[in-house]
Amino acid sequence: MFADEPVKAKRRQGRPAAVDKTFRAFDPHQVLLLPPSLDDWLPEDHLARFVADLVDEVLDLSPILAAYIEKRGHPPYDPRLMARLLIYGYTTGVRPSRAIERKCADDVTFRFLATDQAPDFRSIARFRRRHLNALADLFTQSLHLATKLGMVKMGRVALDGTKLEANASKHKAMSYGRLINKEERIEVEIAELEAKATALLADAEATDAAEDQAFGPDGKDTDLPAELDRREKRLARLQAARAQIEAEATENARRHAEDKERRRQQRKGTAAEQAVTDAGEKAAAKACPKPKAQANFTDPDSRIMKNSDGAYIQAYNAQAVVDEQHQIITAADVTTNASDALNYTTMLEQSAANTGTHPKQALADAGYCSETNLEAGRDRQLACGTDTFMATGRLAHDEQVPPAPRGRTPKDATLKERMARKLRTKPGRATYSRRKAIVEPVFGQIMTCQNGRQLLLRGEDGARGEWRLLAACHNLRKIFRHAGTAGIAALAG
């Protein structure tokens, strides 16, 4: 009926016109005649090759292998494969087990380390939890490797602490005062529910039908309603949290009283250990928790702490001692106390035990300043020659350290006044100014490059093991940058 008009072919918008150009062959359905070689996937100087050679030839995995004593059952993944994945993951910031599982399918480096296998996240998480102590011991191995390469001099070290977010929400914590009120309220609710349950059981005994309706076809007349069971479990958790807070208050009071009595005896030149014990027991008997003392239901070992940004988080206090030469961590630990002051002696002792030598200088910020630590620093200088530079107070932003007064130090000057005068001298200012350049970059690298701001494992032991694994991977990264993949031969020799 109508005349057909010719239609011009329309070209898709944005599609380039055909050109007379030869492209490389591209066939998505091409079948390979020979399987690809894993050795061709990465360049020779890649970090993944360093980790693979390190695990296969250098690191001692005998503590992990010793745990496999049962011959029956399905063969597990090779511990070397799992160690490769965890070390490389913790070095590059891929720490969650599910993220590692995804990388084993999507990322060439992880597929190279796993030899194209794909462990599921449950296997990775179980391996990490089961062998956490052995993985944490890799920290000392990494320190020994760095020492072997001449990267640890122990001339000057800096110690500091940082707050690591626990795998728990601070909203799951409850103060001691609120715990008591909540516990009393739940006890009243349990009593009311028990009365209702008793009445319900009495009515249920009339007929089998009523009993089945109340407890189910297979229920017994001694079963409690689910709501009552839930309240009793809640009450048990509250009581456990209350007992934890009370035990901590008792222990803190005992320790404080014992330290106070020892200092009193030192001033008088006496020594009576029984008096110290009696003072501690007396203080423990009178100890009462503060109403604002808190316990967390998700991770009872963690504490609410103030981080560097001024925010309060559920956290652990991670400690580290760092050598100046190559920023190698020589000691790493985790505590549940927000204050750094309690860790001065223990961290330096751990550093000396790990390296076999005491540093010539130790730098610490004002968080470590206390009468006990100043005395320990003086004694340490006399015993092992470690000269301590400890800030006696915090400086405001851009505030300059005032110069030291002229003349001799007064004979009646306290240890704190002597330390403050020491830091005001020109050599003291120059030495202490190195503290930030030694330890602060290490924390920054762990937080950013290794995604170590938040812990994955719960409990103090889990937090300590994970922090030491992070420290080990930090040291291994430094070794890789110093020696490269060619350094494996020197480490294995």
Automatic annotation (TrEMBL):
InterPro entries: IS1182_transpos, Transposase_11, Transposase_InsH_N
Ranges for domain Transposase IS4-like: 306-476
Species this chain originates from: Streptomyces flavotricini
Protein's name in the database: IS1182 family transposase
Composition bias type Basic and acidic residues, residue spans: 251-262
Pfam family, one: DUF772
Low complexity bias spans: 285-295
Lineage summary: Bacteria, Bacillati, Actinomycetota, Actinomycetes, Kitasatosporales
Chain positions covered by the region annotation Disordered: 239-302
